[in-house]
Structure prediction request, 271 residues.
Amino acid sequence: QDLRPKSLDIKQEELGDMVEKEMASTSEAIEDAVRRIEEMMSQARSESSGVKLEVNERILNSCTDLMKAIRLLVMTSTNLQKEIVESGRGAATTQEFYAKNSRWTEGLISASKAVGWGATQLVESADRVVLHMGKYEELIVCSHEIAASTAQLVAASKVKAEKSSRNLGRLQECSRNVNEMAANVVASTKSGQEQIEEKDTMDFSGMSLIKLKKEEMETQVKVLELEKRLEGERVRLGELRKQHYALAGAYEAAEEGEAKPAPAPRRGILK
Prediction:
């Protein structure tokens, strides 16, 4: 007890309660996330149309599927937890079992918190994206974070579970499903981002003839500038390679004949 970090100094009788509270809190956070996504979906349908509506619906649908997968994961994890406690506590109470295995219990609490936090962050990022105030990259990062925290929860549960446990098998299956749904969120986000960016850059409807001509000339200038810059970078790359080969050759020659003095170069060669 003296060697335990003070930041983790929790009373033994509180650990069991904390596990139950965190799992309940995680479930509540996911339920709330599902409700918020449904609200965003109805808002998107009323405020957007065309490509933007299509993109928003696809992203939000993939987020809903991910939340459902996480909800099933948390339920299965809770069932596995109960099984672990029942099979391992013997004559001890549930509280005593959690206290005796305090390190494992703290890992379980941490993993549960991470899953709930990831779900909340995903919904907030999706909300900002639908309102065109956020970045698509945020959704991608949140999806990766959820996959990582899911792996953490499975690992924490697996430590104490029996290998033949059906609930463990179900939990691992749920974890694979969460990873698949997280990958779908990433895919729908990337394709949606490409669609929106392409539409924004290629939408010339409503432009007058003069405006179109001006845009055309500005684009021609950019193309010429980029071509010139590209040519300059190619020349620079060529010179860098020449210098690299020259230095490499001199280094190899020095290694081969370190004892031999180099012959004096003729003046014509220097020129």
User: Anything to note?
Assistant: The first helix runs from residue 12 to 47. Residues 51 and 199 are 8 Å apart (CA to CA). The chain is about 80% helix and 0% strand.
